[in-house]
């Protein structure tokens, strides 16, 4: 009887150990996985009819109906350890944000993944994508789960770091 109980305890510990190893490997894989390429299609936008581009108030969800014609030029860190740092968007087509040294903007932020978010240019438009991070990427305080178009003034939160698009 005692040997049976001891065997079951050993088996339970072994199962728990393998479960822990599997969950650790899964977290490492998700944190260090190279993101898959995303195909972007340029959105069809009708040209405005004469006159200056009007300033449009944000919708109820915080997004704007129309964007300024001037292309976005930089990402500015407005909150977090890298506050004040800027990333020039005019010379780049893709920007990675995260803790990994290979990222364009390397964060010293415990709540950010190794490769947390990706910013992608398509023509004059910029998009942001969460790279399956554990804590998510937020655009104007709304968690994103797909590619989202960026407009001037948008706030992107990655962990405890906030970036603004200029």
Automatic annotation (TrEMBL):
<protein>
    <submittedName>
        <fullName>FHA domain-containing protein</fullName>
    </submittedName>
</protein>
<dbReference type="Pfam" id="PF00498">
    <property type="entry name" value="FHA"/>
</dbReference>
<dbReference type="InterPro" id="IPR000253">
    <property type="entry name" value="FHA_dom"/>
</dbReference>
<dbReference type="InterPro" id="IPR008984">
    <property type="entry name" value="SMAD_FHA_dom_sf"/>
</dbReference>
<feature type="domain" description="FHA">
    <location>
        <begin position="95"/>
        <end position="144"/>
    </location>
</feature>
<keyword id="KW-0597">Phosphoprotein</keyword>
<feature type="region of interest" description="Disordered">
    <location>
        <begin position="44"/>
        <end position="71"/>
    </location>
</feature>
<dbReference type="InterPro" id="IPR050923">
    <property type="entry name" value="Cell_Proc_Reg/RNA_Proc"/>
</dbReference>
